[in-house]
Structure formats: structure tokens, C-alpha cells
Amino acid sequence: MGVITGVVGGVLRDILCNDVPLVFLQGELYATAAWVGALALIGLQELGVPPVSAAWAAMAVVLVLRLLAMRFHLTLPAFGQPKAP
């Protein structure tokens, strides 16, 4: 739900601003940061961390990952078209 909320919210924001949604462009980590945060939340809860603490820690993971991606231009690998022989 966290990933869906983050991605759909960003898409709606960009559409309302008449921009191409960031999630559809090649660029820094965006949806992946939300996905990692959701996994962090689930993992922390499974480890027995109190829900409020786990939520704050997961939010911090998303924020730090997104800020690092913006600062250092971190991206996921992209597959290009194979070159003709």
C-alpha cells in the first residue's frame, strides 16, 4: 500500500501540474525508495519493533534513500536495445 500510495500520489501531482509523471521517466530512484521503505516497515515489525517506531524508521529509510538518489543521481540499471551485428 505504501508503494501504491507513493507512486499514484506522485503521478496525480505531476498530471495536475501538467508534467510527465516522474515514475515514467528514466531518473533517480522514486518508486524503488517507497518499495524499500515498505520492506523496511514489514521487516522491523516482524522483528518486534513497536509499530510507531517501525513507521518512523521506515519513513527515514525512504527519505534518506530518495535524498541520496537525488544528490548522487542513483538509478536502477536500464536495459537498452541490442545493437545489430
Concise synopsis of the structure shown:
The chain has a domain at 26-74.
Q: How is this structure best described in words?
A:
The chain starts with a helix and ends in a 13-residue tail after the last helix. It has a domain at 26-74. It has helices at residues 2-16, 31-46, 51-72. It contains three helices and no strands. With 85 residues, the protein is mainly alpha-helical. The chain is globular and about 55 Å long.
Average pLDDT works out at 89
SSE sequence, one letter per element: HHH
Structural class designation? mainly alpha
Number of helical stretches of at least 4 residues:
3
How many whole angstroms does the radius of gyration measure? 16 Å
Number of DSSP-assigned strands: 0
The coarse silhouette is globular
Determine the strand fraction and express it as a percent band: under 5%
List the helices and strands and how they pair.
Elements: H1 2-16, H2 31-46, H3 51-72
Fill in the keyword field for this structure.
85 residues, mainly alpha, 62% helix, 0% strand, globular
